[in-house]
Write a structure and sequence with these properties.
Elements (H helix, E strand, L loop, with lengths): L3 H11 L1 H6 L8 H12 L1 E3 L15 E12 L5 E10 L5 E10 L5 H26 L4 E5 L21 H19 L2 E6 L6 H10 L33 H10 L7 H8 L4 E3 L2 E3 L13 H10 L7 H11 L4 E7 L7 E6 L15 E3 L6 H9 L9 H10 L3 H16 L7 H4 L4
Parallel strand pairs: 2-5, 5-6
Antiparallel strand pairs: 1-7, 2-3, 3-4, 6-10, 7-9, 8-9, 8-11, 9-10
Helix pairs in contact: 3-6, 3-8, 4-5, 5-10
């Protein structure tokens, strides 16, 4: 009988060309040819020592990160734990936790989304408090500022927590508003580049759409988990060959931005930023659009918009656009995605739902480069401030399954234990 290793090797060999297609610098089709030319035209190498000087007044920096864990109990319930930590200059530390028990028949995707939303809510609460305190003028969040936003218009399919996404959306909008009013530079840094926002902008710039865009429906039951990168619609030719590739590539039918960076850029550098508007909101022109409002009503199961939902939508209509760009801080490293409010790139006039997307010159992002280089610590430490927070806030197995479980048992006075499938992996 062949070993598993031999079987894996055989399978890789049989699919060798398909595996190599995502690694080779040779474009595989017309779309990839356009993307290769586009990314090379919008990639700007730099030498770290010659990248310019950052405004030295931005020295009071804080970073926020969170962690979450889910454990299935023998009673059939799911125990969710979330915690967040903010560390700033001059010894500033702020922390928050939440824990809930989800009973009843709840699908695993809904439980995982709930945990992600609880964690993000804690992070945003700390971020808002930090900006209100006036303790600093730069705030760094782990993850994208944009990717979650469209999916926060989906209700959560858990009784009692249906409007949790709406709460998180309002926290985002409050943070954006406060940072603009108080002059705090807000950055979202993502370790991965799995979206296709840059690729879509490059295609849109290089040729007219071949078919009309298809709006993404807001479905109350199949929402994308919070914390995942958004995959917007894309206009590409629909030949059978391309359709087959699209199925392998996922929702957008495009290589991810990380793949574009890996295959067609070299050395240190950054891309031209993409200012993102309604590209993930079903291509809506404005929040007053009747079709989008109808979809939102359906998503929240509201024949008429409640006052809370209407308030959030009114704020969303005035929310700023978000800019995003990719930067490689050292040769051979992965690309880092950087998100910031549009005002950071000199566009105070752009509202989130008033346009789709547009490219702006890389020079608008140069004021951020020196800071990112200053915080860079190598392949394992893409940002020193976030690295420190992550090391402290991360929920390790020992913490959850020994310390926190003991606290749960003591507080409830009950012999709580995990279900059999969970216990198998606990040492």
């Amino acid at each position: 009988m062949a070993s598993f290793t031999d079987l894996i090797a055989e399978r890789i060999h049989s699919q060798r060309e398909e595996f190599l297609a995502g690694l080779s610098s040779k474009p595989d089709d017309e779309v990839e040819s356009l993307l290769a030319k586009g990314i090379q035209a919008h990639w700007h190498p730099f030498e770290p020592e010659n990248s310019g000087n950052m405004d030295q007044s931005r020295s009071q920096v804080a970073a926020v990160d969170g962690s979450r864990a889910i454990r299935a109990l023998s009673s059939g319930a799911d125990w969710v734990i979330a915690q967040a930590l903010l560390i700033g200059s001059n010894g500033l530390r702020m922390s928050a936790v939440d824990t809930i028990l989800l009973r009843g028949e709840i699908g695993r995707p809904a439980v995982e989304r709930c945990a992600a939303l609880l964690m993000r809510s804690l992070e945003l609460d700390l971020a808002v408090k930090y900006v209100e305190s006036g303790e600093g003028n730069m705030l760094i969040l782990d993850g994208s500022l944009y990717a979650d936003l469209p999916y926060l218009l989906y209700r959560l399919a858990i009784g009692g927590y249906e409007t949790l996404p709406l709460k998180v959306l309002e926290q985002y909008l409050e943070l954006f508003d406060l940072c603009q009013k108080r002059g705090v530079l807000l950055l979202g840094l993502s370790k991965s580049a799995r979206s296709a926002v840059l690729g879509q902008a490059l295609l849109e710039e290089n040729r007219p759409p071949l078919i009309p865009p298809t709006p993404q429906p807001l479905d109350a039951g199949t929402s994308k988990p919070s914390g995942a990168d958004a995959q917007e619609d894309v206009e590409v030719p629909r030949s059978d060959a391309v359709n087959k590739k699209n199925q392998r590539r996922g929702m957008s039918g495009l290589p991810t931005d990380g793949e574009l960076m890996h295959r067609w850029t070299k050395g240190t550098g950054l891309t031209d930023p993409v200012l993102l508007g309604s590209s993930s909101f079903g291509h809506a022109g404005a929040i007053a659009d009747k079709k989008l409002t109808s979809q939102i009503k359906q998503a929240f199961l509201e024949p008429q918009l409640s006052s809370d939902l209407q308030r959030v939508l009114d704020r969303l209509s005035n929310a700023p656009a978000i800019g995003t760009f990719y930067i490689r801080l050292a040769p051979g490293d992965d690309a880092l995605r950087v998100d910031a409010l549009a005002s950071t790139f000199g566009r105070n006039d752009l509202r989130l739902l008033e346009f789709t997307r547009t490219l702006v010159p890389h020079t608008t992002a140069l004021p951020l480069v020196q800071h990112l280089l200053g915080e860079y610590g190598g392949l394992s430490v893409y940002n020193a401030a976030l690295y420190v927070v992550d090391k402290e806030v991360r929920l390790h197995t020992t913490t959850v399954d020994h310390i926190y479980l003991s606290v749960l048992r003591r507080q409830l006075g009950q012999p709580v234990q995990y279900d059999r499938s969970t216990r198998r992996f606990i040492q």
